[in-house]
């Protein structure tokens, strides 16, 4: 039986036959988004074998950079796994460029505004010793994040006081860590009424150096001041909301100040996570900030039993990359 053009394309991509790939793409009408019997695309085969020239050809022909195999791996994951740097760089750049374009499209599409977290804010949430859950058994925050929150607090407090802002209280893990650095003023924005009520019951409203601002950050932005350190960790929002917050950083973050955020971007796929880390670094760079990512091993914090009763594992990677973003020390 004669093989389909797509099967021949997968074979050529796997073996490194660039001329055959070009021929099949240009004149054979082969579908570059085809999945073979193993659930792999031509791009995945080329990435696993490290054939950079073929990857370039397939991407230019419209091969989807973010297609996933049955084991939830993308072409970029295969390139990473087999240490094919040239292949990885091509796929990383393709992912960043695609997401930049997609982000622009989304901003145009949503220019009239939206309320992505409205449903969450109207739901009841449940508190336990080791997790905060929404009504759909999805974790809002969990105790395993405590070492991460302590590292974030250390980064934005720079080892001392100052005026610190945290957007999103959750279980209060980062705020408890911030308090250990004795900030002169510690402002907290929290939007969920249940969480806000628990904050008051726990005595946060009585702390002399704490100012609680109840509401969505988008609605209370005019009440915010200028800060030495800022942390951002909201629930029920998406990358676009994080990006929107970043547009306010020039007014919110003092020159020389430190900004960080919970880096849960695509926490279930290693390559997608890298793409979004690079994307946010690029976009912050365009605003005049330098960003570094500090690797923190988290595998030992996440035995399987941690996720018991949780509907969705929002973090599945062995390493957490803590972002540290710094404004220029000289005023513009």
From TrEMBL:
RMT2 domain segment(s): 111-332
Under the heading Gene3D superfamilies, the entry gives: Ankyrin repeat-containing domain, Vaccinia Virus protein VP39
Nucleus: present as a keyword of the record? Answer: yes
First-listed, main subcellular location of the protein, grouped into a coarse class:
cytoplasm
Alphabetically sorted, this entry's keywords are: ANK repeat, Cytoplasm, Methyltransferase, Nucleus, S-adenosyl-L-methionine, Transferase
Pfam families linked: Ank_2 (PF12796)
Q: What GO terms are given for molecular function?
A: protein-arginine N-methyltransferase activity
Q: Which PROSITE patterns match?
A: ANK_REP_REGION (PS50297), ANK_REPEAT (PS50088), SAM_RMT2 (PS51559)
One GO cellular component term of this record is: nucleus
Cellular localization per UniProt: Cytoplasm; Nucleus
Stretches forming ANK repeats: 38-70
| Biological processes per GO annotation | methylation
Give the superkingdom in one word. Answer: Eukaryota
Entry-linked InterPro entries: Ankyrin_rpt, Ankyrin_rpt-contain_sf, Arginine_N-MeTrfase_2, RMT2/GAMT_Mtase, RMT2_dom, SAM-dependent_MTases_sf
Q: How does it assemble?
A: Monomer.
> What is the role of this chain?
S-adenosyl-L-methionine-dependent protein-arginine N-methyltransferase that methylates the delta-nitrogen atom of arginine residues to form N5-methylarginine (type IV) in target proteins. Monomethylates ribosomal protein L12.
Name of the molecule in the record: Protein arginine N-methyltransferase 2
Q: Which lineage?
A: Eukaryota, Viridiplantae, Streptophyta, Embryophyta, Tracheophyta
